[in-house]
Structure formats: C-alpha cells, structure tokens
Amino acid sequence: MYRTEGLLSFYKGILPPIMAETPKRGTKFLVFEQYKRLFLLFDGISQPYVFLLAGFLSGCTEAFVVNPFETVKVKLQSERMAFAAQKSAFATAREIIKKGGLGLKGINKALPTTICSYCVSNTLFFGTYNNLKTYLFDDWEKVSIPYRLLVGFTAGSVACVSNTPWDVTKSLIQGPQPTPGVVKYKSTIQTMKLVIKEEGFFSLYKGLLPKMMKVGPGGALMFLVFEHVYGYLQQIL
Q1: Is the pLDDT assigned to residue 117 strictly greater than 70?
Q2: I need a surface site. Which of 16, 24, 37, 108 has the fewest CB within 10 A?
Q3: In angstroms, rounded to a whole number, what is the distance separating the alpha carbons of residues 190 and 186?
Q4: In degrees rounded to 5, what are phi and psi of residue 35?
C-alpha cells in the first residue's frame, strides 16, 4: 500500500471519522446516561440489566448518527488511488447521495448492520465496564487510575471482539462490490452466510488485532476522561 499509493494512503477517509468522533462519543455517553436514569425508575429491573439495556439503546441511537460518516469513510478507504488524487469527503458524500439518495441504497447504506454492530458493541461496552466496577470494587471513587484504565480496557476489548463480525459485514455492504454492476453483498445475514461459506467463519474477524489495539486503549481513556469531566461538571453546575 505504501509502495503503490504513498504514505498518506494510510489516512484515506480520515475526515469523516474526525467529523463524526465528537458527536459520536457525545451521543454514546449522553444517551447512555439518560437511558440508565430511565430504567432505574423501574424497580423490577436489576442494576446489571439496567446497564445492558441502556447500552443497547445507546447503540441504536449512536448508529443513526454515525452511519452516513461510515458510508463515506468506507468508500474513500476502498479506492485504489493516491491520497492526493481522491475526491474530498464532501464531494464523495454528494456523489453517494446523488446516486443512491438518503436511504439504504445511498448515504445510509448498511444502516441495519450498523445498528446491530453498535447495539452489540455498546451493550457489552457499558455493561462490562459498569458491572465490573460495581462487583469488583467496594468504593470506585478510591480506585487508582491504573485499575480504572484496566477495567476500561477490558470493556473496550470485549466490545471489540463482539462487534468485529458486524463491522466486517458492514464494510462489505458499504464498500465496492467485487463485480461492478452486480450486488454481491446485499443484507446483513446474507453477507455473513456468504463470507462463512466462501472464506470460513474466522474471516468475519479480519482486522481484529489492529482494531483491538485502537478500541481497547480508547475505551480505557474514554471512561477515565468521561468520569473525571462528568464529576467536575456535577460539582460546578
């Protein structure tokens, strides 16, 4: 890739993630806290399930925010050309909308797969983190930063492993089809079955290690920063 397309080819599709990251992370934690408060109003739901349900619904919400950015990112990353020769993210988005519209054939291609991906990911991301800190530590406020980072890393890693098959499937649906003009990857279940049939089950976990190297530490830092900022805002507001 470096030899044929240059160093900057490693940064293809960088603008959509940058643009999506702030609203994505903000939505993830904001809606999780709101859903958590909602479920805590019901006495019949135990706390572990509150975390899981709130995480599940936060994933549904986040998927709608992030999917258009993901469609553009995958389109840019799949192009076999030098970084400088590519169209901008905005031009690519306009092209996708012009050809396929705002629906499932255009800028929101693979939305059902993205919803599955984020629902599974956020359920285990928030569920693992909050349940580990509740059941392993008596007083979370006194827990040192290394232990907090370890719990966040574990949550991020668990979410990553569970999310990867859905993410691989999403990318296949959103990306260019192997034969131009022929739609090979049509829907979530059909694509998963086809990948398993042609390449084997573990093909659904392509790119797991690089993704874990990003999501594990990212999860640790996200929770650490969120709790410190959230606690500070509660004190001053």
Answers
A1: yes
A2: 37
A3: 7
A4: -65, -35
- Nearest-angstrom CA–CA distance, 165 and 81: 27
User: Higher-confidence residue: 133 or 181?
Assistant: 133
The dihedral through the CA atoms of 68, 120, 175, 82 has a sign that is positive
Tokens of 69: 């950015």
Residue whose token pair is 């719990």: 151
Q: How far is CA 67 from CA 12, 62, 117, 179, in A?
A: 17, 9, 11, 24
Structure tokens at 1: 């890739």
**Which of 32, 193, 209, 36 is CA-nearest to residue 118?**
32
Two tokens, residue 133? 């800190």
Rounded to 5 degrees, φ, ψ at 186 are -105, -45
End-to-end CA distance of the chain: 50
Q: Is the predicted pLDDT of residue 2 greater than 60, yes or no?
A: no
Residue type, 226: F
C-alpha to C-alpha distances, 79 to 83, 92, 175, nearest whole angstrom: 9, 11, 9
Cβ atoms of residues 166 and 122 within 8 Å: no
Distant-in-sequence, close-in-space partners of 144: CB < 8 Å, separation ≥ 6: none
